[in-house]
Amino acid sequence: MATNPHDWLNEHGDYLYRFALARLRNPHQAEDVVQETLLAAIKNPNYAAQSSPRTWLTGILKHKIIDCMRKQVREIPASELLTEEDANMDEFFDNTGHWAEKPVAWDIPQDALQQKQFLQILQQCMTRLPQKLAAIFTMRDVDEMENEEICKALNITATNAWVMLYRARMGLRKCLEMHW
């Protein structure tokens, strides 16, 4: 691994782009945050080779992604949070609020996630979610960020975060049960 900043784009650019694209789901935004990351890294002389350049660049990229998500959260109207699929969530529950039919138990989630077909279906389902819901799901369940950290990053309340996470999970569950 090169520690020369001029080699970082060639050696780490593709990885950083894929990392950003998986979280932002927008090729243009992913390119922008990778460029901002590399620019910030070149301007910041604090890289002391205590970790690999890729690890250091990924840390910067994570902050740039959060900044981008914050901007999106501020700019998306609240009316876009509720999708048609959200309105149909009652079908999963009976009159007492319990599951009408319990969710299908997957064998071993780690094994299922490793299957290429499952990842493709999951990615398709993620693209069907509203941007904010996909972002909060990724932050919580993929990146394993704490709720407090997510609320701070997106500038939302804890209650709003849990509602959004619930909607994201229900939307993904419905989509995965239909397509997987």
Automatic annotation (TrEMBL):
Keywords in alphabetical order: DNA-binding, Sigma factor, Transcription, Transcription regulation
Pfam family membership, one: Sigma70_r2
Protein name per the record: RNA polymerase sigma factor
Organism: Methylophilus medardicus
Domain RNA polymerase sigma factor 70 region 4 type stretches: 120-169
Keyword DNA-binding: yes
Keyword Transcription regulation belongs to the record: yes
Similarity comment: Belongs to the sigma-70 factor family. ECF subfamily.
Annotated RNA polymerase sigma-70 region domain residues: 10-74
Gene3D superfamilies on file: 1.10.1740.10, Winged helix-like DNA-binding domain superfamily/Winged helix DNA-binding domain
InterPro entries on file: RNA_pol_sigma-24-rel, RNA_pol_sigma-70-like, RNA_pol_sigma-70_dom, RNA_pol_sigma70_ECF_CS, RNA_pol_sigma70_r2, RNA_pol_sigma70_r4_t2, RNA_pol_sigma_r2, RNA_pol_sigma_r3/r4-like
One of the GO biological process terms: DNA-templated transcription initiation
Gene Ontology MF terms: DNA binding; sigma factor activity
